Hints:
Blueprint: E1 3-10, E2 19-26, E3 33-42, H1 45-52, E4 62-63, E5 67-75, E6 87-91, E7 100-104, E8 109-110, H2 117-137, E9 145-148, H3 154-165, E10 169-174, H4 177-184, E11 190-193, H5 199-206, E12 212-217, H6 224-228, E13 231-239, H7 252-255, E14 261-264, H8 268-271, H9 274-289, E15 297-302, H10 306-314, E16 321-325
Helix pairs in contact: 2-3, 2-9
Amino acid sequence: MSQTVKAIRIHKTGGPEVMKWEDVEVGDPQAGEVLLRHTVAGLNFIDINHRAGTYPLPSLPAVIGMEAAGVVEAVGDGVEGFAPGTRVSHCMNVGAYSEKMIIAADRLIRLADHTPDEVAAAATLQGLTAHYLLHESWKLEAGDTVLVQAAAGGVGLLLCQWAAHKGATVIGTVGNDEKAEYAAEHGCAHPIVYTRDDFADRVRDITNGRGVEVVYDAIGKDTFEKGLTCLAERGRMVSYGVASGPIGPVDLRVLRPLSGSVACGGLGNFIRDPAERGANANELFSLIADGKLKMEINQRYALSDAAKAHADLAGRKTTGSSILTI
């Protein structure tokens, strides 16, 4: 039997105003699926990209949102390992901005008792992103020096903490002195206020002209080209987002004298296999539970206020992570 629930849905792409709080129909789970009741949704730049049309969705209208935590309400035929009442999270599944959704069971992450729903909704997508950036896009080692763009953001704070925990020296860019202090409290040894100082010049000063082993860049157009000049020999630029716009063609003449490289990251490739996803999530949530990583949830919005949440995130008015309560 289908049921009516509330959701944030878009009928066309555009600004925050295209998001509508409206009724949608949710059916019964089919074979391999579960009916999931969301309790908290995450807020991520990929949601803005879907809303704006930068990353086109397969069809419209569509419920947006790519991360949430909640409770399984019903299961379809053949589902093993999940029963009604099981607490779970998920990410990279369109439709999270909804009170309930149907989702394939093999996309779920079981939550341990030590992981609250709010933490799971804030950390699943961003934390698993930080995991692959530090372990796959560049195998970070103790003694490395890294540059984290947007160091006071959700992924940025996790990268700073995790890299410092692994023994790296972290340089990070932020927009103001308040964010610089915040990043410094979370593992960033050298915060740079990019609105005041040229970050490439500061990186050269901090590293005595050597540069960094890896640059983690989710900003894109505004920072990518200059970031390449921050690399040490055999260093790597890792691009995992384009918050400021698409990146232009890369001039290999900048990289060749350094034997440098560029890697592109997309979380979907690292969570497709349930075993890999589960192992990475277990490591992430265990580090959070042990206090090695701190999830800073500094903004909370009702799901119905998602338009304001998007405006704040796009306007760089947020620090740490933001969640949408349901």
